[in-house]
Amino acid sequence: MAEKPVSEYRGSIHQQQKDLMLDWYQRLDHAAETGDPPTVSMMISGNCVELLEGFGAIPQYPEVNALQLAIRHQSLEPILAAEEMGYAGDNCAYVKADIGCMLKGITPTGGRLPKPTLVLCNFVGCNTYVKWFEHVSAFTGAPLFVLDVPFLRNDTPSQADIDYVVRQLKEVVGQMEELIGRKFDYDRFRQSVAYSSEVEELWSQIKHLAKNSPSPFDAYFDAITLMGPLYVYRGKREGVEFFRAALNELQQKVKAGEGVYDQERFRVVVEGPPPYPYFRTFRDMFASWKAVAVASTYSTVGGLWEFGFRHDAKNPFESVAMHMLAQNVTNRNYLQRYDQIRRYVQEWNADGVIIHFVKSCRLFSAGQGDMRDYFTKQLGVPTLYIESDLEDPRYFAEAQTKNRIDAFFESLEHAKRTAAHAVSA
Amino acid sequence: MRIAAGVDVGSTQTKAVLIGANGDGVEVLSRSLIDTGANVRKAAEKAFDECCQAAGVAQADVGFVVGTGYGRYNISFGHTQMTEISCHARGAHFLCPGTRTVIDMGGQDAKAIGVGPSGEVLDFVMNDKCAAGTGRFLANAAEVMGIGLDDIGPLSLRATRPVKIATVCTVFVESDILSYLSQGKKPEDIMGGVHLAIAKRTMSLARRVNIEPLVTMTGGVARNIGMVRALETVLGQKIIVTPDAQFMGAVGAALFSLEKLGESFESSVWREHAVSSGD
Fold this sequence. Notes:
Chain A is α/β, with parallel strands linked by helices and 425 residues long. Chain A has helices at residues 12-34, 49-53, 62-71, 76-85, 93-104, 128-140, 159-180, 186-209, 221-232, 237-255, 279-287, 316-326, 334-347, 362-365, 368-378, 398-424, and strands at 39-41, 58-60, 118-123, 144-148, 266-271, 291-296, 352-358, 383-388. In chain A, 53% of the residues lie in helices and 10% in strands. With 279 residues, chain B is an alpha/beta fold.
């Protein structure tokens, strides 16, 4: 039976994350004022943030802006503004929030966002982004470059796929040299790739800490906190320092036997992004059951590192291409995603899977009904399927969502009790 | 005798059940049913009060109360809450031993629940945030036709050529019905079509859990014989309905209450309540 929500883990890394992200927004604000540093609009999925370091440029992520807005309960106004303009009800709500912000002059922090030097559509997996970034380019007047990254069709990309992406990355470099007016610093790029490799190793170790029981952090909700620095600072020294501190803090928790809650009761794997407009409410629904996510696919949208992939400073362009092609969840096929979740359930010792279907994201969510069937019927893993949206608050029904989550944990509780009786008998 | 209660505050109606346990087994002492209305807290109190009065039991003598249904957190006197999903499974397992699938159709919900051998929830699916396939859909259809809700089921059984209802939208079904009325279709054929449309939608939902016999129907819509028959037609097998189908959530909640009081009991003692709809 559900209890009242208990406070979960709040460590110093949460404050450090906040400081880092605020600093990033301040740099964007400064860029809006002075044009320095150059900025590049990119998408999170399989991002190639290392490339920007070769120009001392920083990324802008429209998705991060959109989710920040939603967490602050401010996403509906821009969504409605975009719909008034003609965007359809079932368009991606991230797109509508972002476009609405441009129409209304809204930013998540209240600070300014610069006109990007380049709108770089690093299209992996989500073809809606091509249209989104075309619109960003049209609204801001910034030039657009669309990187064509082929879907991963086999276990690994072909050499032709890798060469194809590398050629395009070099084209981007050429275009940025023209736009910024200075040469690409290859050594700095290579150094950035080396930093990324270090960050990925630290991040991977952090994720594997969730195999401990109790898990020292929530690999869904807390992972989202850590994902900001992962995408903005991955190719920087600050990123290495942040993730080293995070790993150290979490290792200390493991040594002390501390978990997210005073007593961990359930371990789950979560598929899909959270309903950001109700982020706190949603987290409390898990907290009331002391249920911790030990792994999540959403935390691998930007990159999948816990199974061994690292950027490689010896082959920087090729490893960036490999990351974009094969080492992020959105560009991989569905069977690979099944396998990823299966490994999480088995290796991270989870009690069940929770799938959050996003109404306005057909591309990422389509097929999740089959995914549910695969886990419940073929593997016998209890799996809950809930629906709302990552950005549009109108799709979230609190009572219904809570009802489903409560029923799911009630059934897991019953199963545990029955198993315990069987053992004692 | 230990006395326990379950109160199921649904979106449309609130149900309360009192059960008692002694050495001989478990027996139902009383039931009550009232409209939920706007004041959920009062509805729960009233249902519980009526239930206690009907059994001649003082409220203070009720050892434990489990609240369920959407209004479960508004039950001021409840000791704890459980979802109606667990409660319907528990109630059906107890009243209809051997139940492996529960189809629960209430005012705003339609659910299919896979039930394990000890009454545990193995899996469940629910309707999306939409009233299609629920009691509300049938109520709207009845209202448009100007027929009482209790009469639409028997009426639908007289259908000889049920119409095709394309929509399962609770709002748009009204225009579908008006269109058929203007074409001169018979009310029983329209209602037959309405029931079949809901049955098909519910079964497509239910097939996402493994439908295994026995299939027991619970919730207020189980009182509608037309709906039961339509579901049986689509499913191709008998569906078990008990006179307490509407109280199943409250019964399950009361059983959980009894467990909280430390009672252990076998499900067979209450078996006489179970009847097949096919009889």
